């Protein structure tokens, strides 16, 4: 059968098996800020997979792709960080997926840029997006990939101002490496190899 090279590639068949969520704030004023590391990681993963995250649904932007042989929904909540759970729980309910099949990507000020850490469950660690997801779902068993964005340089910095500040050139380079490791980690995690991902990439 002739395939038109200009046609958009077909979405992977079957039902969504995993949801991959990048946390951040929508709007150009927040682009490139520390708090948007989750959005940046999701955009990178989507680009690597040849996927588009441009469909408006679940109070966010989404798209589907195949990662590690699994059909995955890529989701960027548009609710602003503190209400991320509204978008995530809506998507979970639609696809009837448990928290264990929802991987969350987000920023962590306790890790330096360039470092990332995978956790399979646990508290929100003070991250407000994760806090809202746990609160609205009533579960804390979401696998998560925490991307280091660095601690406040001095106690005088207001935390809100710090997480909405932008990365230096060297920090951007370090973050890019961590995001590439996050991409590799997601592929292993959806295949049931989270332990391998943690051994390889936790730092």
Explain what you see.
This protein has 203 residues and is an alpha/beta fold. It has six helices and seven strands; from the N terminus they run βαβββαββαβααα. It has helices spanning 37-49, 84-95, 128-137, 159-163, 169-190, 194-201; strands at residues 18-22, 55-57, 60-67, 70-77, 102-108, 116-119, 144-148. The protein has a seven-stranded mixed sheet with strand order 2-3-4-1-5-7-6, with helices on both faces. The radius of gyration is 16 Å and the shape is globular. The chain starts with 17 loop residues before the first strand and ends with a helix. Residues 1-10 have low confidence and may be disordered.
Summarize the structure.
With 203 residues, the chain is α/β, with parallel strands linked by helices.
Oligomer: single chain
Radius of gyration: 16 Å
Helix content: 25-40%
Low-confidence stretches: 1-10
Anisotropy-based shape: globular
| Class of secondary structure makeup | alpha/beta
The total strand number stands at 7
Order of helices and strands: EHEEEHEEHEHHH
Biggest sheet details:
7 strands, mixed
Distance between the termini: 48 Å
- Rounded mean pLDDT score: 92
Approximate strand percentage: 15-25%
Strand line-up of the largest beta sheet: 2-3-4-1-5-7-6
DSSP helical segment count = 6
């Amino acid at each position: 059968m002739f395939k038109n090279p200009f046609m958009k590639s077909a979405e992977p068949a079957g039902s969504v098996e995993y949801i991959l969520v990048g946390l951040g704030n929508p709007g150009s004023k927040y682009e490139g800020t520390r708090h948007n590391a989750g959005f940046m990681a999701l955009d990178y993963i989507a680009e690597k997979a040849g996927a588009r995250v441009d469909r408006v649904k679940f109070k966010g932007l989404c798209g589907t792709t195949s990662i590690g042989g699994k059909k995955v929904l890529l989701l960027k909540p548009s609710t602003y960080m503190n209400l991320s759970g509204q978008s995530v729980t809506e998507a979970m309910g639609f696809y009837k997926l448990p928290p264990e099949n929802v991987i969350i990507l987000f920023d962590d000020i306790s890790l330096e840029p360039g470092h990332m850490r995978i956790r399979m469950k646990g508290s929100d660690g003070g991250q407000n997006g994760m806090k809202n997801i746990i609160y609205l779902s009533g579960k804390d068993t979401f696998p998560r990939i925490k991307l280091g964005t660095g601690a406040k340089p001095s106690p005088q910095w207001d935390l809100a101002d710090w997480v909405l500040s932008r990365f230096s050139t060297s920090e951007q380079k370090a973050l890019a490496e961590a995001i590439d490791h996050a991409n590799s980690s997601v592929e292993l995690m959806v295949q049931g190899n989270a332990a391998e991902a943690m051994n390889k990439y936790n730092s």
